What does this fold into?
Amino acid sequence: MVKYAAGDSFAGVTAGANNFDSITAFATGTDKIDLSSFGFTGASVASVRTNATTGVNATTGEVAAAQASNFFGAGGDQRAVATVTTAGGDTFVYVDANKDGSFQAGTDLAVKLVATAAPALADFTFTA
It folds into this structure.
C-alpha cells in the first residue's frame, strides 16, 4: 500500500461511506505500509505510538477533540504513526501527514486493518 497525500484516506464518514481505506488479511511481518513519500526521519520513526481506544470511534475512526492534541506524541516523543486497536479486533493506523503531533481529520491519514492486531514498526517503510 502506498499513500501520497493526506486526502488519500482519512477518518470519518461522508455521505454514508467511510473515508478511510480498509485492508483485510494484512500479515504482520510480511506486508508493508509504505510511507516513504512523507519524508519522516529521526525520532518520529523510532517506534509506533500505541494509543488507547478512549475517544476513538471504532466504526468511523474519528478521534475525539479531547484526544486529538498530541495524539502522535510531543517533542522528542512525537511519532509518525499511531495505532488504536478496537474491542472488535480491528486496528486503525493513523499517520501524522502534516507532522504537527496532533490528529487533524482533514490532513492526517487513517487506514483500518480489519481483524488485525497492531502492526510492528517493521511493517512500515519510511525511506525509499
Remarks:
- The chain has a mean pLDDT of 84.
- The beta strands are 13-14, 17-18, 21-24, 33-34, 49-50, 81-85, 91-95, 109-114, 124-125.
- Residues 34 and 125 are 5 Å apart (CA to CA).
